Amino acid sequence: MTDNQTVQAYTDAWTQSIESISELLAPLPTDAWNRATECPGWSVRDVVSHIIGVESELLGDPRPIHALPRDLRHVTNEFTRYMELPVDKRRCHTPIELTSELEYTVIRRSRALRNARYGPTDLVRWPAGPLSREVPYATLLLLRAFDVWVHEQDLRRALQEPGNLDSPAAVVTRDWLIKSLPQQVAKEAGAPIGSTVVFDVSGALPFERTVRIGADGTGSMDESAAADPDVKLSMDWQTFVRLCCGRVHPETALVNVVGDQELGLRVLAHLSSTP
What we know:
Blueprint: H1 3-25, H2 44-58, H3 78-89, H4 95-115, E1 123-126, E2 133-136, H5 137-159, H6 168-188, E3 196-202, E4 207-213, E5 219-222, E6 231-236, H7 237-244, E7 256-259, H8 261-269
Parallel strand pairs: 3-6
Antiparallel strand pairs: 1-2, 3-4, 4-5, 6-7
Helix pairs in contact: 1-4, 1-5, 1-6, 2-3, 2-4, 2-5, 5-6
């Protein structure tokens, strides 16, 4: 694809996922909004509020003036504090108010994306509190498609409404998470030089990849499976996503570890690549 086609693909992926969230919420009974999700500390209503907050900030809306309570255990650093503020501000909003605000925000954001005059490599602000920085426009759209889809799946698991596991945004997410594997295995998990780790993922978006640790200690990706890896990690697509996004503890995840058990468990413990 050309750069402009990539921008459109990311935009379409975001659109499909965020509209799916609106459809998912429309028939939701009031009590379901308080169900806990796997996103630490957040209920269904909180996840929706987070999506609204980020998209509103991208539209240039001012951040709310609000003092956070001191007893939020999942708020552990400046990044989580930054993300929590627009969420906590909306905890008194009714489901009707939230669905209306989400729909209006999606309309405004879709219009802004259609009218955008940024090129794929033009630098734009990525709002993430202390992690805020300028990123290429195409990267911002990728990150939004990724984030919205991950939260869509948070909502679907909490509401027991599975779906969109192979949607366009799911494909964006898969490719983004696969790119992170060499760093997670080499740097975060500290896999030894010369070792090989195979990821065998089944389900809606199956793939098999081998991470090899070179003489300099860095990881590289091989799309073919190593014949005799040090460890092979087999899991389904949802488990892979949940591990990479910090939604499940490695000790309880349904993963088949074949080979070096210590290395395999260490890699699983360091797969999470989202802040």
